[in-house]
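User: I'll paste a sequence; please echo it back and then give the predicted structure.

Assistant: Echoing your sequence first, then the prediction.
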Amino acid sequence: HVQLVESGGGSVQTGGSLRLSCAPSGLSVSDFSMAWFRQTPGKEREGVAAIDSAGYTSYADSVKGRFAISKDNAKNTLYLRMNSLKPEDTAMYYCAATLGLCLTRASADFYYWGQGTQVTVS
């Protein structure tokens, strides 16, 4: 049984930073491509950042240079470091895992999803 549990969300002022964590059970972050998505009410889920099993990364243009996705294979944890946060970054952030190895930010490619953690920037 696979579970993805996110943590680290919260409220922060414009320009601040947060680090999100995702601790999967039932799968290893080293084996599959994973990503962070975000969604606000009435909008489509957006693939913010992705990382494959080899450590290659991909970012949405809206977060390039501000967000960094990483993983710690020893701790089996996925991270999203978010700097220079803006009000438009406010959203529910989700951790997701594919069943494959390709680097992708398309939500249809992801099989496992966490419950989400709220990030609010004001």
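The longest strand covers residues 18-25. The two ends are 37 Å apart (CA to CA).
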